[in-house]
Structure formats: structure tokens, C-alpha cells
């Protein structure tokens, strides 16, 4: 706040006027050493008569709150403005929830949410905001450092209907290992895809990810993870689909969903075109990859997973099965079928069949843009007995294989 010098002069050279602009009703005090002068603000102003020149410290109190402090060097009459600290915290919480604001363990205020609640705070520091309703509670913290900043926080309860939860809430439940206490294998969450994946352009394509496992193979792949797969066409019922492009069952530079750009499985899943150029191996590398087509909320909630696969290619040796770290991945033969027909048999030592498929759910998937047409869809396992093929799922849901350079259906998994 500005400190301004006035044109007035001191009274007889011994008394000086200090004009303080501050909220009405504030008690204003000016101190210099052992001297102190006080007055109450009326109509937004308080005039103090100081007995001598020198350096005076000015502050105000109102309703238990203390304003900022100003120091003035008085040689004649001065004007100064004082302000009280205040900041707002806007809480988005379910309507009807009781929202409580605390600081240092003490309750500052409590209100009932109408969808949002606004608290005004009068000092800096870390505040805890808690919402409770129907036996559920959730909380978060806000660090208030400035009166010129508006603070906001969103608190959500966990819904037993998966699709009603944000990806952030799903991730928090997953972190706690509580997913199976709220949801079931096969439950679905809407995902809207926008962007280009390979050569496939998607614009507001609404689809549904579904749960295929809770803490699946956690000893090897990581705990605190709910495993999903894309995709289904509806929140209930509907059709199981995979993404297919205009070059489905063909090769060529515009073929999006091929395992490699030529008919080879050398380097296995780890070095494949599918893993590096369609799935992507980083949250920050998005161009042309499924990572760039998903909503930002889902991208932020994604968790990496350790997957074991034959990363040699045609090898049948146990040493060929090694680990990769993935965000999006194709499922393996064993993860879908629970047995090995064409892939390296040692993959089974490091993998588990997903609960969704061990429960007997269909392995048949249809083209996302032609839902009456069953599709071949890729698995990440190389055909161990052949150097140019990867394992796939046939249109009738049985295990099969295809040349690596052919574009088939794309049905990736991911973890939150």
C-alpha cells in the first residue's frame, strides 16, 4: 500500500496529523518507542495526532484480526493506508455434503455444500478441507500464501458406479488397493478419443474402457493398479471393439496398426513399431500415439506397468523373456487365453491370465467403425517358431497369428 506525504504542516511544530485509511471500526495504533497513540476509524478513516516527529509504526486491529503494518518517518503530516489479509477458498463438493475448514487441527468454519462452498480466510498457512456425507469422507489441503490469489479445491466421494468417478478418484482408490471393494471386473468408464493414432483420425469418438484385473500379477507388474482394456461401445451391453484403420488386413506406409513396418518379429514387443510408435512409452511423447488421443485427465492418472514378454522374437529360450515398462500395452497370449500355443512358453512363468478372460468373457472383438464385422486383433507375443509373425486373436475368438507388417485390430490395455 502507498504511503503518501500531504501538504499539511505540523501544529505549532510540535504536533502532527497522521491520516490512516482503513476499514471502519478498526482500532488504529501508532507507536514510537514508549509512546502510543490510538483511535477508531470512522467512515474508512482515522486521524491520529502525533506528539512528535520521528519514525512511527502504524497498525490496526478489527474483530481479532491484525492488519498489515506500515512504518512512516514523520517530519510533518502524513497519510497512510492499512489493509487486512483475506483470501477465498472455493470448494467444489457434492451437494448436501458438510464441508469443514481446519487449520492446525482447529475448525475454522463449516458449511453445507450446494455444489460449491466458499470460505474466507484471514491469514496465510495450510488449511485442510474435509467433506463428509452418508458415512463417506474425503479431504484435501490448500496452502494459502497470498491475498491476491483465489484458491480452489475439488473433493469427490467414491461412487459404486465406476463411470461416475473421475480418473483421479479411480487412481486414488487404486493406490489404496481398494478397487475391488467398490467395482467389479468388467465395469466400464467412458473415454472420449480425439486425435490421430498412426493414420487413424478420431474426433470425439466416445467409447468405454473396462476393468480386466485388480492388482493383476502385482508381484511382477506393480501393486496399486487397476488394469483396463479398450474398448466397448456402451456403458452396458453394446459391443466389444478394437480400433481398425483404412488399411485393415493390409500393409503399407499408411497402415496404422501393424506390429512392425516389415514382416519381422525381431526385437519382440520391446522394439516393435506398435509399442514405440502407436502405444508410446512416455506420457510426454504423444504425437501419432494413443497417448495423445486420450483425455488429459486419464493421461495424468496413468500408471506405468512392468510387462514381461519374449523380446527376442522367434526365440524359445527362457532368456528371451525380459521386462519392459509401459503405459499402454497389448495383451499377451497367456494373459488372454491362460495357455501357450504359439508364443514363447516361458512367458507363462512371468504372466497371469487376466481375470476378465479367465471368467469366460468373449474374446471376439469387432471393428470400431463397422461393429457388425468381427476383427483380428493383435497380441504382443511374438510367434516363437517363426521370425515374421506375432500372435493374434482370430475373428471367432481363438488364438491365431499374423505377419507383423499387417494392420489388425488395436485393443490396448493400460493401468490407473
Please tell me about this protein's structure.
This protein is mainly beta. It folds into 3 domains: 3-81, Immunoglobulins (Immunoglobulin-like, Sandwich), CATH 2.60.40; 87-154, Immunoglobulins (Immunoglobulin-like); 159-416, no CATH class. The chain is 10% helix and 41% strand. The protein contains 8 helices and 29 strands. The chain has helices at residues 167-175, 179-182, 218-221, 273-279, 290-293, 296-301, 333-337, 355-358, and strands at 3-5, 16-21, 27-32, 35-40, 45-50, 54-62, 65-66, 70-74, 78-81, 87-92, 98-103, 106-112, 116-121, 125-133, 136-144, 151-154, 188-197, 200-214, 226-232, 241-242, 305-310, 321-326, 328-329, 365-367, 370-375, 377-382, 389-393, 399-403, 413-415. Strands 3, 4, 6, 7 and 8 form a 5-stranded antiparallel beta sheet that branches. A 5-stranded antiparallel beta sheet has the order 17-18-19-29-23. The chain has a 4-stranded mixed beta sheet with strand order 1-9-2-5, with no helix packed on it. A hairpin with a 2-residue loop joins strand 17 (188-197) and strand 18 (200-214). It is elongated, with a radius of gyration of 33 Å. 39% of the residues are buried. Residues 1-12 have low confidence and may be disordered.
Amino acid at each position: 500500500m502507498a504511503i503518501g506525504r500531504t501538504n499539511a504542516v505540523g501544529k505549532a511544530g510540535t504536533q502532527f496529523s497522521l491520516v490512516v485509511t482503513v476499514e471502519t471500526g478498526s482500532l488504529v495504533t501508532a507507536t514510537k518507542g514508549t509512546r502510543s497513540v490510538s483511535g477508531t476509524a470512522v467512515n474508512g478513516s482515522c486521524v491520529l495526532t502525533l506528539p512528535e516527529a520521528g519514525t512511527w509504526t502504524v497498525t490496526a486491529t478489527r474483530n481479532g484480526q491484525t492488519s498489515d503494518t506500515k512504518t512512516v518517518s514523520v517530519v510533518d503530516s502524513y497519510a497512510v493506508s492499512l489493509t487486512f489479509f483475506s483470501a477465498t477458498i472455493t470448494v467444489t463438493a457434492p451437494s448436501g455434503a458438510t464441508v469443514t475448514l481446519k487449520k492446525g487441527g482447529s475448525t475454522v468454519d463449516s458449511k453445507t455444500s450446494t455444489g460449491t462452498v466458499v470460505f474466507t480466510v484471514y491469514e496465510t498457512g495450510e488449511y485442510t478441507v474435509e467433506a463428509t456425507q452418508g458415512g463417506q469422507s474425503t479431504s484435501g489441503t490448500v496452502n494459502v500464501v497470498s491475498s491476491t490469489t483465489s484458491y480452489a479445491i475439488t473433493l469427490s466421494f467414491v461412487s459404486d458406479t465406476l463411470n461416475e468417478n473421475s480418473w483421479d478418484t479411480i487412481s486414488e482408490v487404486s493406490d489404496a488397493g481398494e478397487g475391488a471393494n467398490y467395482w467389479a471386473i468388467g465395469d466400464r468408464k467412458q473415454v472420449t478419443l480425439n486425435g490421430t493414432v498412426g493414420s487413424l483420425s478420431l474426433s470425439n469418438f466416445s467409447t468405454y474402457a473396462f476393468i480386466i484385473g485388480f492388482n493383476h500379477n502385482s508381484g511382477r507388474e506393480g501393486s496399486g493398479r487397476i488394469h483396463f482394456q479398450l474398448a466397448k461401445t456402451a456403458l452396458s451391453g453394446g459391443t466389444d471393439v478394437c480400433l481398425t484403420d483404412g488399411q485393415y488386413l493390409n500393409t503399407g506406409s499408411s497402415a496404422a496398426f501393424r506390429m512392425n513396418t516389415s514382416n519381422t518379429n525381431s526385437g519382440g514387443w520391446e522394439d516393435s513399431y506398435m509399442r514405440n510408435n502407436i502405444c508410446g512409452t512416455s506420457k510426454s511423447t504423444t504425437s501419432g500415439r494413443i497417448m495423445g488421443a486420450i483425455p488429459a485427465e486419464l493421461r495424468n492418472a496413468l500408471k506405468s506397468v512392468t510387462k514381461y514378454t519374449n523380446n527376442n522374437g522367434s526365440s524359445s529360450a527362457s532368456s528371451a523373456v525380459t521386462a519392459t515398462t509401459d503405459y499402454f500395452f497389448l495383451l499377451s497370449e497367456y494373459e488372454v487365453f491362460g495357455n501357450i500355443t504359439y508364443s514363447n512358453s516361458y512367458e507363462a512363468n512371468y504372466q497371469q491370465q487376466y481375470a476378465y478372460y479367465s471368467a469366460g468373457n468373449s474374446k471376439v472383438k469387432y471393428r470400431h467403425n463397422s461393429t457388425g464385422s468381427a476383427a483380428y486383433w493383435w497380441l504382443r507375443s511374438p510367434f516363437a517358431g517363426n521370425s515374421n509373425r506375432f500372435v493374434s486373436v482370430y475373428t471367432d475368438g481363438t488364438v491365431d497369428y499374423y505377419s507383423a507388417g499387417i494392420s489388425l485390430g488395436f485393443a490396448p490395455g493400460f493401468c490407473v
